[in-house]
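pls design
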């Protein structure tokens, strides 16, 4: 059986992406596929280092998440004019060297998050949901290689908070992100798996069912 060369899992923190990557990678490797795993999480490389410098200058930003926990995180809203470009410059080498190069070398790549997650993450950090409709957002989404199988791990607020008690977003931000994921994945025609009521084995089988039919 032939499988997709690039499988990208997208969705909120707590939706089960990272957990499912373990059996998915084992599945491919047990069948002799040269397999690479990549984790594309904001803040990316240079952007992360730069955020620490900015935090040292302006002081920490602390939010209270829906579980009542005080979480320190980067606030990109004062730099909304330049921060998306910083993130773009930071993620581009990851896309080239961790996704496109392994594909050229014949690997099957399993990507934990993709440009969809980057776009939504930037929109959240700069507090501008409409960023997802902008030019840079479209450029970021265009970096997704053709032939990719994108699977959206759809989940609900209650499950997210249960699985990620220290999540670094407010309740309103989580609701906005869920809305943005729904909008972008619908527009891009991605596959969907509702993971709120599924355990790891059930979600893994649902992923296999999708990639075996592509």
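designed seq:
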């Amino acid at each position: 059986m032939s499988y997709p060369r690039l499988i990208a899992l997208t969705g909120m923190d707590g939706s089960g992406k990272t957990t499912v990557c373990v059996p998915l990678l084992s599945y491919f490797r047990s069948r002799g596929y040269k397999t690479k795993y990549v984790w594309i999480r904001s803040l990316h490389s240079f952007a992360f280092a730069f955020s620490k410098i900015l935090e040292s200058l302006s002081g920490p930003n602390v939010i209270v998440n829906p579980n009542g926990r005080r979480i320190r995180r980067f606030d990109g809203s004062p730099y909304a004019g330049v921060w998306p470009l910083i993130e773009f410059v930071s993620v581009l080498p990851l896309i080239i060297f961790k996704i496109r190069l392994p594909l050229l070398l014949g690997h099957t790549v399993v990507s934990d998050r993709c440009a969809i997650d980057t776009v939504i993450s930037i929109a959240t950090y700069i507090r501008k949901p409409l960023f997802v409709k902008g030019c840079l957002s479209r450029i970021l989404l265009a970096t997704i290689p053709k032939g990719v199988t994108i699977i959206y791990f759809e989940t609900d607020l209650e499950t997210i908070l249960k699985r990620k008690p220290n999540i670094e977003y407010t309740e309103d931000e989580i609701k906005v992100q869920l809305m943005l994921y729904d909008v972008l994945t619908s527009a891009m025609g991605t596959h969907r798996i509702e993971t709120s009521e599924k355990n790891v084995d059930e979600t893994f089988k649902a992923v296999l069912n999708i990639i075996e039919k592509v």
